[in-house]
Amino acid sequence: MIPKIRFATPADADLILQFIHGLAEYERAAGSVAATPALIRSQMEQAEPPFQCLIAECDGEPAGFALFFRNYSTWSGRPGLYLEDIFVPERFRGRGVGKALFKRMAQIAIERGWARMEWAVLDWNRPAQEFYRARGAVAKDEWTVWRLNGEALVKTARD
Questions:
Q1: 132 catalytic per annotation
Q2: Which structural domain range is residue 118 located in?
Q3: What are 23-64's pLDDT values in tens digits?
Q4: N or C: fewer beta carbons within 10 Å in the chain?
Q5: What is the CATH number of the domain that holds 143?
Q6: Among residues 26, 72, 82, 132, which one is catalytic?
Q7: What does the pLDDT read at residue 72?
C-alpha cells in the first residue's frame, strides 16, 4: 500500500498535536509538549504560517506527519527545508510511510528551488539515523546544536 501524502490544514490541528505527543513520548520527553490545538490552528491560519505540515494516510487513516519550515543558507544564497519533526506511529512503521513523507519533502524542496534539507536527530535514535543514511543523508558531526530558551532567553534579551 502506498501512503497518501497531503498538506495539513488548520482543521488538522488536533491530529498534529496527537502526532507531536506521540513523538514526544518516543523521544522520552512526554511531559515537554506545551503546544495546544488552538495554538497550532491559529498559527496555521496566519497569512504566513510559521510552519507547514504533511499528513500521511493509509486507507484513509492518519499514519504519520512531517512538520517543516523554510530556513536559509547564506553560503548557498538559497532557502532550505528544515524538518522539525517527523513521526510515524509504531503500528504504521515498516509500511513506507516515513519514506513517503521524506520523499515528498525532498520533492517540495526541489519544486521550490531550495538548496537542501536539514534536521536534528537524537544521538540514541539509531533507527532514524539508519533511515536517513539509507537515503544518502550525512551527519554533520562537526556541528553541535545550541539552544537558548526559557529564562536564559529572557535574561539574554534583558541584559
A1: yes
A2: 4-158
A3: 999 999 999 999 999 999 999 999 999 999 999 999 999 999
A4: C
A5: 3.40.630.30
A6: 132
A7: 97
